[in-house]
Amino acid sequence: MRSLRRRARLAAAAAGAVLVGASGFLFASSASAQIDIVHIGEVQGSIADGDTDFTSPLAGQTVYVQGVVTQKTLETTGNKGFFLQEKADATDGDPLSSDGIFVFNNKFDTVRTLNGSPAQAELGANWNVQVGDEIVVRAVVGNYFGNVQFSGGSTFVYDVVESGLDPLAAVEQVVVDPPNDAKASTEYFRRHLGMQLTVPADSVVTAGRDVYSSGGEVWAMRGDSEAAQQEGFASRAYRDAHPLDTVEGSFDDGNGYLFVMGDMGIRATEGTNETIIAPAKTYDVITEANTGGVYLSFAKYGIQVANDLALEGGLEPAENEPVEPAGRNEATIASYNIENLYDFRDNPNSGCDFTGNGGCTDAEDPEGNVKPPFNYVPASYEEYEAQLLRQAGQIMDDLHSPAILMTQEGEAQDVCSVNPEWTKRSDLGADRLVCDLVNAGDANTGGDGAPDSIQELALVIAENGGPAYTAAGDLDSADTRGIMTGFLYQPKLAGLSKVKSWDPVFGAEPAIEYPTEADAINADVQNPKALNAALPQAVVDQCTNSGVYACNGFDVYSRPAQVAKFHLKDKWGFKASEIYLINNHFSSSPNTRVLHRTEQANYLAAISSAILDHDRKAKVLAGGDLNVFPRPDDPFAEGQVIAGDWVGPSDQLAGLYEDSGLSSMYDYMVEEHPEAAYSYTYMGQTQTLDQMFVSPRLLREVESAVSAHINADYPADAYEFGEEPAYGNYGVSDHDPSVITIDIR
């Protein structure tokens, strides 16, 4: 440890007082007593280019540091803290080390003074945390999930050197300017951890505000960045494989020029933990500079700005290649992740559906085990109905009421049926469905074969002036927690086809060529129908609880693929053509569960092949939330080690591209309108998780394929903070729906 005399008052406060040295040993106070003060930069450590270990070189040691309190923080839980940073003329002079540090102070507004210290003699037992005070503290160097920090429980104020400072004038003023490369950007923010960074005016939002129980966050880029200078809707951040990415030839650079702003500072400024950062949307422009400390949480270096964002509305994401209504002799089919559309009824068939339930476990699907609290259950029926109303509005106004919708993330529940008294004008509210919420299993008298949440969505569409929809779905497509795929269709435009017991997919013995035993559900003769099989033993042998080999149980799917066969109708109501829809919701996280997701794509390819082997002219559409990127995008670079001798790219959808007989509509989208070719935003950049693949015959009939940008770019709901949706129906889901228009002549 390098000793350094600083400007702390070092004389004894009173005769006989006791001082504590940096080593923790006690010594008698005297006029010449010294303490060893180290630079905060020494605590944080110097980060060289290429470093990957950001552990403090003084981790676990007791140190004295001196700095200015630059900012207070307040978390949604009520936990408090503050940032401490050295004056600009008193740093270690090392640009590779941070001059600031965060002090976590739990629920307290004060920090204890050190026994026998000048601060104790002057202030008593406690120092009130005050922005603008320059203080000397003795603290133990700690680490909280990578965030080097001090904790109030082991931090003591030794001296208050000066008060009433303007903290932003006293410390180095740094305007955020991270490099393009993601690794270099991480090093950049690590070198500023705990320091104040300023977000300049004219910065551009690159992803709508997201909301978590810990607060909200907004991703942005500087207005003078190359990406921000692109024209129109292209002025945003795309993943590297996308043709509009600005770092040519790089792989997964992460668009390091992006930065994220959090609201711990805003809450402290406003003095309430019920506030949240402004509801920004993609393309909004930040009109006033904003400053805050850099805090590491959930692997993200967030600038905890002190004031709420001042925003000027930019382009409207929903106008980026919007869905067009179906024309004459056309039909539209949509795939729509409705983001945990759970009703506010306690399903007697589920132990993980409602407050007070004990949870759900499944030895065959351990990854899907669910324990309280159940964060996908709405807070009230009113909140649930608000979600229904907003999604109904999107289906009618933005998707123009497709003939068929494939839904993901609906609730696997069928204990209700339509109230006989219901009409689209009856205004029954929660009573539009009548339910048996007492009896379980075969004893339940409420079900009617339609999943309750999407059935209620259909009724709400009709109540608000939309067309009549019918809900359908096989509850066997659900995972342990009760999330499933489903279908909504307009009876005047489409109908479920009758299927035979010998049908190659819907029959009792599906002709799906896959090297393991089929699940018992495959023998059901029905339409729609869930399909699944055991994972190959070679895969099971490699399954782990986390990482690329993580498995959601020992079947191919934790949420089985669901197939439906529809006939589309012409304007006179006659059958015009038939189409097979394969609805999917693969396991989540593109860079984990890699082996398992690869098998899901292989099985989906086998389903499609079974249909096309029986009828090569069949019209097949496979789609849904595949939770991984289309070619040539990939979470792993060519040659990058995935695990052992397994190297990238992972090409998890290879089976779908090579063995299904289907073509990716993403290729069509990225060629026709690249600025709109995405369905999701993550860490400030676009990506494509929701995809559609079509058979050769259907491909010839495709008129258009688009993603409706009505969700991913808009701020998420913040009901728990008392905020109503800022953009009406927009932002009701975290995924953008995919829509295909076909000629049915």
Description:
Keywords: Signal. InterPro entries: Endo/exonu/phosph_ase_sf, TAT_signal. It contains twelve helices and 39 strands. With 745 residues, the chain is of the alpha+beta class. The strands form nine sheets. A nine-stranded mixed beta sheet has the order 12-13-18-19-16-15-14-17-20. 52% of the residues are buried.
Distance between the termini: 80 Å
Uncertain segments of ≥5 residues (pLDDT<50)?
Answer: 1-33
Q: How confident is the prediction overall: mean pLDDT?
A: 93
- SS strand fraction: 25-35%
Tell me about the biggest sheet?
A: 9 strands, mixed
Structural class: alpha+beta
Shape: elongated
Helix coverage percent: 10-25%
- Beta strands, count: 39
Question: So how many helices?
Answer: 12
List keywords for this structure.
745 residues, alpha+beta, nine-stranded mixed sheet, seven-stranded mixed sheet, 12 helices, elongated, signal, Endonuclease/exonuclease/phosphatase domain-containing protein, TAT_signal
Short synopsis of the structure:
Residues 1-33 form the signal peptide. With 745 residues, the protein is α+β, with helices and mostly antiparallel strands.
List the helices and strands and how they pair.
Layout: E1 18-20, E2 26-28, H1 40-44, E3 62-74, E4 80-85, E5 100-104, E6 110-112, H2 118-123, E7 126-128, E8 134-140, E9 142-144, E10 147-151, E11 155-162, H3 167-170, E12 174-175, H4 182-190, E13 196-199, E14 203-212, E15 215-221, E16 259-262, H5 264-270, E17 285-286, E18 290-297, E19 300-305, E20 311-312, E21 330-341, H6 381-398, E22 404-411, E23 416-418, E24 433-435, H7 452-463, E25 470-472, E26 483-489, E27 494-496, E28 529-531, H8 537-540, E29 561-569, E30 575-585, H9 594-614, E31 620-625, E32 641-643, E33 646-647, H10 654-659, E34 663-664, H11 665-672, E35 680-682, E36 685-687, E37 690-694, H12 696-699, E38 702-707, E39 738-743
Parallel strand pairs: 5-10, 12-13, 16-19, 21-22, 30-31
Antiparallel strand pairs: 1-2, 3-4, 3-8, 4-5, 6-7, 8-11, 9-10, 13-18, 14-15, 14-17, 15-16, 17-20, 18-19, 21-39, 22-26, 23-24, 25-26, 27-29, 28-29, 29-30, 31-37, 32-33, 34-37, 35-36, 38-39
Helix pairs in contact: 6-7
Keywords: Signal
InterPro entries: Endo/exonu/phosph_ase_sf, TAT_signal
Protein name: Endonuclease/exonuclease/phosphatase domain-containing protein
